[in-house]
Each structure stands twice: as C-alpha cells, then as structure tokens.
Amino acid sequence: MSEPLLSVRDLKTQFFTEDGTVRAVDGISFDVHEGEIVGLVGESGAGKSVATSSILRLVDSPGEIVGGEIEFKGETIFGLEADDDGELRPRDEMLTENEMRKRIRGREIAIIFQDPMESLNPVFTVGGQLREFIEINRDLDPDEAKEEAIDMLREVGIPAPESRYDEYPHQFSGGMRQRVLIAMALACQPDLIIADEPTTALDVTVEGEILEMVTELQEKYDTSFIWVTHDMSVVAEICDRVNVMYLGEIIEQAEVDDLFYDTKHPYTSALLDSMPRPDRTVDELRPIEGVMPEAIDPPAGCRFHSRCPEAREVCREVHPEPRDLSEEGEPRHAAACVKHDAFDVGYDESPPIDTRAGGGFSAGLTETGGEAE
Amino acid sequence: MSEVGPPESDPEALLQVRDLCKHFDNESGLLAGVELDDEFPYVSRSTSDVRAVDGVSFDIKQGETLGLVGESGCGKSTLARTVLRLLEPTSGSVYFQGQDLASMSGEPLRRMRKDMQMIFQDPQSSLDPRMKVGPIVEEPMKAHGMLDEEGREARAKELLEKVGLDPQHYNRYPHAFSGGQRQRVNLARALSVNPDFIVCDEPVSALDVSIQAQVLNTMEELQDEFDLTYLFIAHDLSVIRHISDRVAVMYLGEIVELADKEELFENPKHPYTRALLDAIPVPDPRSGGRKALLSGDVPSPIDPPSGCRFRTRCPSVIQPDEYDMTDEAWRNVVEFQRAVERRAFEETDPDALRDRYFDDATPGGDAGTLLDEAFGHIERDEWDAAEQLLVERFADQSVCATANPAYEVGSELGDDRHYAACHLRRDEAVAAAVDGTAFDDAARSRPEADD
C-alpha cells in the first residue's frame, strides 16, 4: 500500500488534573490513506475528540500530548526524542506553532465540529465569514474570494446562495449551518478533513442529505476524512475503514464490512447488539452492562473486562495491544482481545469472571458522573 | 366522575385529543404586527401566528405506548406540553379519563396532574443540582400531599431500587450520577405519585447507545409493572420502532399518519413517512445506504403551505386535472419548479435547461406553452416572474394544494385503524370505508365473539 497521508503512532494525550492524571488517549495508532474515509467510533468519554484535537495540536492546558508520533505528508506534526539527559523534548523537524497555524490548520487539515452554531460567529454574516476564511488562506483579493465563497455555498446545496450570502447564522437552519461549515472546510481544498460528529445534532433526513453530499464531494475533490461518530449506522454508510475506541484505546481496527460481519472484539459486538434496529422489530435490547469507567483510573488488564460478557480471569491481568488477526493477503483486521488464539495467554483455561456478581447496583455507578457533557 | 367524553368516545381510551391547536404569537408587545402603509389608514395591523400544533386528534389506550415521531421543529414537544396543559391550548380539547383538561383550571387541574407526569430530554437540566436525589423523588409526593415524611422516604428508596439505582444513593446529588442514571432518577420522580400516564419527551436521545438500551428496557419493565401508558416522543425511528405499540408521524404541526407499529413501518401510506423511513441509516454496510432523500427544508409554520403541508417537498405530488402530462413529464415539471424556487442553477439558456431537466420527457399542450413562457422569463433574468408563474400554474393547481387530505385506509398488518393524510390514498380509503361498515355490521351481529 502507498505511503499513508497521515500516520499516528502510539499517541498519548493526558490531562493533569487535581484528582490525578486523566489518560484520555492512551497509545493509539492508525493511518489515513489518500481518498479514504476513516471512522473513529466510540461512546462519549472514549477519547475520540481528544484524539482529533491532538492531531491538530489543539490540546490546551491542563492537557498535553505526552508521547507518540504524528506524521502528515512526510512532515512531523508531533514527535519527541530523548536528549542527552534522557529528558524528552520535541524533535527538531517538528513543525512550529507558527507553521501549524499558517500552513496546516485550515489549509491542509480542516476540521468540522458538531455544533455549527458554536463554530460560526453570530454577529457576522455567513458569507462574510466564509469570504474572510478564503481570503486569508488562499491569498485571494476580496472580490475573488466573495465569488469563490458563493460558488462554495452553491456547491454544498445552499438555496439562492447570492442572497443567503448576506444572512446571519441564526437565519440558517441547523442543517444549512453544517453545510456552511463543510463549505468552509472544503474551501481551501485540504488533503484531510476531520469531521467531529458533524451530523449528530441533525435530523435523519438532513443527516442523509449531508452524508450523500459529503460522499459526492469526496469523490470530486479526493479529500480524505477522519469521521468521528458514536453512530454505527453512519459508520456503515460512509466509512471505508473503522477504528473502534474504548477508554482511550483503539480496540478494533478493520475495514467496514469486516467490522460488521466478522466482529472480533466483544465490545464492538456488544455495541452493535445494543442498538435498536430500524429495519426490524427487536423484542428486547441487549444493553452493555454498567457504564464506561473513568479514564483517570482505568481497570487493570483489558479495560473492557469489567463490562465484558466473555471476560475471564486472565483478562484482569493481561493488557492486550491490538494485533492483526487477518489471514494472509487479506486487509488488516486488528483487535485487542485475548480470546483470540494469536494472543496465546491461556484464555481458554482461565475461569470466567461473573461480571454481574460483584457489581450489583454499584456496577453502574461512577463517582463523578462520567459521561456528562 | 362526570363522563363528558368526545362524541365517538372509545371506552378503552385513557387520553383522547380532539382538534388540538396551539398557536404562538409571532410578535408581542404594544406595536406587535403594526405596519405602515402609503395610503389611508396608513397603519395596518396584522398578526401572524406560529401554528406549532394545528388540529391534531388521536387516542391513547390504557397501557399502550404511542410513539410520536417527526423532524425537529414539527411541534412534537409543543403537542406534548399542550396535552398536559403545561401550555394553554388555542382551541380543541384533551379528554383525560373522560374529563376535558382544556376547560379545567385551578385546583381541579392541579389534582389531575397527579395522574400525568413528564420526563424531559435533558437529564442534566431537569434535576435541581442543589437537591439530593431523595428529596427530588419525594417532591411530587409532597406537592400532592401523599404519605407522611417517613412514608415518602421509604417510597423514594423503593422507587430508586425499582428504576435500577441503589437505594443508598438517596443522599447523593445529581452530579454524582451519569447521564443514564440521571434519567433513571427522572423516571423515579415521575413514578412517585403513581401516575397513569407519562409523557416522555425524547428521554433517551441524550444518552449513548449502550446506555439508551438499558434505560429503554427499564422503561418497558416499569410499564408492565405499574400498568403505565406512555406518549413517547423521539426523532429516532429505531427507538420508536422498539418501544411503541402505535406510531403517529407529525409534520409541521399536523399528524400525517397514524397506525400500528408494524403496519406503519412495513406498509407506510404517506410519502412523508416513507421518506423518513428511507432516511434512517441501517447499521449494516451491505444495506446499500439510504434511498431517495427528501430535498428542501421544512416550510415555516407561520405560513404553512395550503392543503397538504408536505406538498412542497413531496416526491409524489398529484398532477392538476387540467393538464394531461405523462408521469415522467409531470415529475420533471415539479423538479424544475422547485429548482427555480431554490435558485439551484445559474444557467439561463432555455436549451441547456431543457436538456438538464426535461431530458427524458417534455410536457406538451398547455403545460408546454407555460414552460416556454417560464424559460423566457429565466432567459431575461426575471427569476421572480418565472417562479410565480410555475408556482401559480402548476404547484398551486394540484389537489394537494387545494384540499386538506384526511383518510382512513385499511390496515394490512394488525387490525387497528390506519390514518393517512395523503390524497393518493383517496381510492383506498373509499374502499376501506365500505369494507369497514360491512365489518362493523358483521361484528354487531355476533357481539363479543372474539376474546
């Protein structure tokens, strides 16, 4: 396979809080190749958004990227090396903050956020904001930039773009605002767009339109996407390859069809089983027991063992790294679960853990309200 | 209890809503709606209402779950609040256990509230962060003077256990709970006064899928145990399919279709329902993605389209009687008219437009002449004139624009009624009405034969 566009290796981002260190992203590795849509799936609190902000080096204090490497088109977005005293310091070839701001963000890697109202300034017109963005990032003069902005609005399906150009964000519906952000992201023809739950707040009908539009535009401009979502249906529809995250780690990595039809990690199967289906009536849903533990103090061993229906004693002790379990010649399908023979840690002989026994009511309890957002 | 139900009263129905309307003033204040004119009397006053809920009727039977689904802004939450009389209805009535809530007020209404509770979407903002969960659950009982202090505490603990929390969490604050657990506290609070009817306004849409499933399962268990009746609002059709017995689909303040769950999902009769169902993503990469999608935005409820409100986005608008086009030609005309309305293209050359919109079928006769006229307007850059011509002569002539549809059609799955507000169903509805009377006669001749 060709050289990946973006490659993330063993990325670790931590937040240093008064209560301790939150290991929001704990050693994830994945690649994005040219022209593909890569999904990043997980429940809230899995570390999806922190992972994407780390790629753009947008993590603020008390958060910090503490390890790993991010390479984009042969340039180092993040990388550390040990100096003579053994202290870690940024490598020389790592892009400076200035280069990141001027060259990478917006121009090479654009990002679309979940809430379009928070990304648009309510006191400036939609067209003005789009024009300014194009003017600065593409060095066009204001008139050319305006023309380009109107073209982009038409491209993303805004009706009557000439007259809507002068309207304010509040005059647009939620779906339209998201279209404006997509226009903004596409305006500089970046190589990679990070879409952080862009359709979560929208109705299914609007979501459908937007996903369809993204697929068309992606073919036209050959842009790569990292699509962050918690919705398996969106993944099924749009992604080429998928990374499933749980508690700061990637626990399964596969092509989309393999993920759904040859699921290798119990968390992924549990996630798929817990969804109500639109195409058939399900009598009883099978929810995942309990809630996701805190990233401040993750369970020892496999992080999912406390909720896993297939957990055995060995899962408490062994912490599995994702391993490629695919057959020779097949696309990579990695999973981090010791039940597979490739891990060979004695899963079959190990006695099962009864995940419900110790838990009772408190199994579902978090001290600080984990998933509040 | 004075039995003053609606005319065709169904003895099984717990709640009967008849022609319920809720309009909001678009502007308020002294100068609301005042406009200045050029001629006498110089000042005119017009009020424009937002017609959030407009003539909605349905029944909910004891012990069932009615799912209410629709896009955001269609009036689902306003309907829920109006049904509970949290909002004053503009007109219409709501009969709860035979009494009209719309005409009640003061103390009798307050006492009725004991039997009707509500669960809100956001589990965070619907719990007072400065109260412990125990007192939160006890508060409705206090308001309705139920039990003494010890009794209330005992009941609160019992309810916390029922909804799947530890009774020892009685003294914790809401922030110590996760989203799913907070929604369980909400459930316990709603159950505390032993209601018959609970309105659930998007209770699980703020939760993660795995947690969503836990809460939905708990809600079903509680329904069985306490014989509850739910009005369950959601925009997620998968959730609706899982939990409902019957489903009502709402569009722009009106119910467009109401039927048994299986019937509605397997045999939808309204183009809007069909479009909504087609738009749901299926968690399966081999499903081939979504089918034909709706275009355009929901029109404003201030000035909704005449006739069928869905006609401005409907993929199967009916051709006006005065023209005689093929179906393909008519569909092309509709598509072209909507494109002009949205100013979706810049092209002004008639031949190019013809190629683009009327490639496979061109209407002839009167319709063809009108189209030529529209092309002429576009060529001269008179977009408004073109739009007006197309809308007045085509879109507004359709039966969809001139008459308000409301039909009762035969059900194929299940034996409940199937209501669909679409003119395409007129013939079926007539047939079903004939069948229906025959069935009624047959049923009357052998009373209580079933069961």
TrEMBL record, chain A:
SUPFAM superfamilies assigned: P-loop containing nucleoside triphosphate hydrolases
Region (Disordered): 347-373
Substrates-to-products reaction catalysed: Ni(2+)(out) + ATP + H2O = Ni(2+)(in) + ADP + phosphate + H(+)
Location of the ABC transporter domain: 6-272
CDD domains linked to this entry: ABC_NikE_OppD_transporters
Pfam families documented for this protein: ABC_tran, oligo_HPY
Enzyme class: translocase
Protein name stated in the entry: Nickel import system ATP-binding protein NikD
Organism name: Halorubrum tebenquichense DSM 14210
Lineage: Archaea, Methanobacteriati, Methanobacteriota, Stenosarchaea group, Halobacteria
From TrEMBL, chain B:
Keyword presence, Coiled coil: no
GO biological process: peptide transport; transmembrane transport
UniProt domain ABC transporter: residue ranges: 34-277
SMART domains, per database record: AAA
Transmembrane feature ranges: none
Keywords tagged on the record: ATP-binding, Nucleotide-binding, Transport
GO MF term list: ATP binding; ATP hydrolysis activity
Similarity field: Belongs to the ABC transporter superfamily.
Name of protein: Oligopeptide/dipeptide ABC transporter ATPase
Taxonomic lineage from the root: Archaea, Methanobacteriati, Methanobacteriota, Stenosarchaea group, Halobacteria
